[in-house]
Amino acid sequence: MHTDSRPQQASAEPLLPERGHEVGYENGPVTKVPGWHGLIAWDALLNGMATGLFLAAAVSELAAPAVFMRVAKVAYPVALVLLLVDLGLLVLDLGDPSRFHHMLRVFKPGSPMSLGTWCLTIFSLPLTAAAALSLLAELGWDFEWARLLAVVVGLLPGFASAAYKGVLLSTNAQPGWKDARWLGGYLTNSALVMGCGEFLVLSALMGQTQAIAILRTAFIVLLVLNVIPLGLLFANLRPIHAQLYTREQQWRVGALIAAGALIPLGLMLLKGSVLSISVAMIFLLFESWLVRAVYVKIPHTSPLEVRSGE
User: Fold this and answer.
1) Maximum Cα–Cα distance for the chain, whole Å?
2) How far, in Å, CA of 278 to CA of 264, rounded?
3) What is the C-alpha separation between 151 and 155, in angstroms, rounded?
4) What is this structure's pTM?
5) CATH class, 38-308 region
6) 131 falls in which pLDDT band (50, 70, 90)?
């Protein structure tokens, strides 16, 4: 048998693990943290505000048009403005804004990033149509069938757009994010809570008493329900919190989040005035932003950095 006496060239690729061993990034070291900081927290907040407001207005109008149609026609343009600001922040965070269209060159249903990008793009179309037709109706050009069709078409991509960011973060390999299995549930429910609150504020500003009575009850229920995914999310991330933050820091952030959740509930149970509703919404938005800011920051924080900042 002939044997080659020449020295074997070392392979440039690492040896693959034997069959039966885990392959992929899930259990491997993460060498690069994505450059996602403050803009992503605001992006996640505005995404929830835009999609949540649309969903709250659409479901309310379709269920009881006589009660909610007038407010819904105002809500759709507001939701569109929020979405445009959100998309602007998302494009800026890419580093090179001109590369955004590259994300639309392919469609990968198995990728949360690709699917979410396409859902946002598709959602923007019926939302724009609903907003434009609502404004035209106020000017006397009423195409009610087309406006309602746009509202119905926007429901599914709107819900998907509200849910995908939490799924995206919880299905990657970054420390902390990969453990946040309830992040998608929290962000989705948070979008619905914020949307209901925004719709309630608009109803209060427009003096729609019947809409206020219904939405106030729905808002209280959603505020209570929101505690469940938030608590489960905290349970997911309790081990990483213990590594990254001191006990004092954990209590401080927890107290702020609890205040942002409980104060709106207390205000809604006590009063239903425009002022109390607006103040409750401000506290809710602060709590929602704080949760997003804390979890976006997790992979960028190390125990060494936390200790040095004490």
Assistant:
1) 94
2) 9
3) 7
4) 0.77
5) mainly alpha
6) very high
